[in-house]
Amino acid sequence: MQTKKQKPEAVFALARERYAEQGVDVDRALKILARIPISLHCWQGDDVGGFERLGVELGGGLVATGNYPGKARTPEQLRGDLDAALSLIPGRHRLNLHACYGEFGGKRVDRDAIGPEHFRNWIAWAKSRGLGMDFNPTCFSHPKAADGFTLSHRDKGIRGFWIEHCLRCREIGAAIGKSLGTPCITNVWIPDGCKDTPADRRGPRERLAAALDVIFKKLLSPKWNLDSVEPKLFGIGSESYVVGSHEFYLGYAVSRRKLLCLDAGHYHPTESIADKISSVLQFMPEILLHVSRGVRWDSDHVVVLNDDLAAIAREIVANGYLDRVHIGLDYFDASINREAAWVIGVRNMLRALLIALLEPPGIRAAEAAGDFTARLALQEEARMLPVGAVWDHYCRSQDVPVGDRWLAEVKRYEKDVLLRRD
Ligand code: RNT
Ligand code: ZN
């Protein structure tokens, strides 16, 4: 009779054999998976709130619906929540921080006055956990962004304010990268756009290109900071016109040698970013992904393991782009436990990568031989391969909960920590 301990490993051994029959080396796949960092977005922990206490609502067309109890209200709470989530996720990852999460010691420090010192605690926390960090200017939820324009604003003073903010964010990014010994990706996204048909589409785009050129003028070592720009087709309140559209930033990133950030929720609802990866990588060395899930008009639902996600992961892995594609998550759901939202999204991203790493080579071989019948047959058969047993083994070997056991941990954390906050 098998003991409880032996049984799961016996299941894994069978799965490994099954994959070996298909020409897949499971051990190699798991070694690669363990080295892929996912950048965890801090903003899922408090509905994109931050710690500035400006008394303004979430802006820029970003909406976090729901009022699930227990959201983090202090940096200590948010770091505690991130620790709790990370303990349920296999592998070593990164933290993606927004500028509005700085710590200002009760003082009012406006966005054009922030510096690395306001992020000291975050950097120390990341260092002690062995995490890399990424960074973002916060060009929304601010009185100077109230009319929906920032870097492309017609008013020179307002434009200058946001330019200064972004300049400082790059310096903070470089300070972060230097402290942690891994480049920080500083990603610029701005909400600028119009609800209704604009009379001038050209002016704001000319102003945005000029503002970005000022922001990126100072060269910073790519060892510490990498700049990226994030397009969007339309947003809530910018349905008719977005200054920083896909074509705008594609052209900008190619001509200025910047990273392009592809957000899965920023395109037409039937358009997938998976197909864009091998297109844009013909013309730029690296890109950033904001993995998200669009549903109808919302671009930021929790990432689930669907065909869209599998296709994104597959394009990265099958094309050998793991060192050129930086993977970050970007969603915010305030209607469910926020810890669970993080854990579900990251575990799904990793599972999608695992599926891609375990793809039977026969699929590509069939295509190369011109046998499209076999390609489709093998693609569909591959769906039933025992990836679950491999994933469970991976979680076990990384000392994180197997299967839905992480949920009990989240519920315990909710009862002991989160519910005591409200
Ligand atoms: C908004 C962009 C952007 C934000 C974060 C909070 O549509 O996706 O990346 O979600 O900066
Ligand atoms: Zn995004």
Report on this model:
- This protein has helices at 6-21, 26-33, 75-86, 120-129, 156-180, 202-215, 246-256, 274-280, 307-318, 338-357, 362-368, 372-382, 387-397, 405-416; strands spanning 38-41, 94-98, 132-136, 184-188, 193-194, 225-229, 241-242, 259-263, 287-291, 293-295, 298-301, 325-329.
- The protein is an alpha/beta fold and 422 residues long.
- Helix content is 42%, strand content 12%.
- The mean pLDDT is 97.
- Helix 2 (26-33) packs across helix 10.
- Strands 3-2-1-12-9-8-6-4 form an 8-stranded parallel beta sheet.
- It contains 14 helices and 12 strands.
- The protein has a domain at 36-77 and 90-336: Alpha-Beta Barrel (TIM Barrel), CATH 3.20.20.150.
- The longest helix is centred in the middle third of the chain and has 25 residues, at 156-180.
- The structure holds L-rhamnitol and zinc ion.
- L-rhamnitol binds next to loops.
Instruction: Give the strand order, joined by hyphens, for the main sheet.
Output: 3-2-1-12-9-8-6-4
Please bin the fraction of helical residues. 40-55%
CATH class of the domain at 36-77 and 90-336: Alpha Beta
The major sheet is characterized as: 8 strands, parallel
Structural class: alpha/beta
Query: From N to C, what is the helix and strand string?
Result: HHEHEHEHEEHEEHEHEEEHEHHHHH
What does the overall shape look like?
Answer: globular
Bound molecules: L-rhamnitol, zinc ion
User: Kindly state the mean pLDDT as a whole number?
Assistant: 97
Number of helices: 14
Oligomer: single chain
Strand content: 5-15%
CATH names the topology of the domain at 36-77 and 90-336 as: TIM Barrel
Low-confidence stretches: none
Radius of gyration: 22 Å
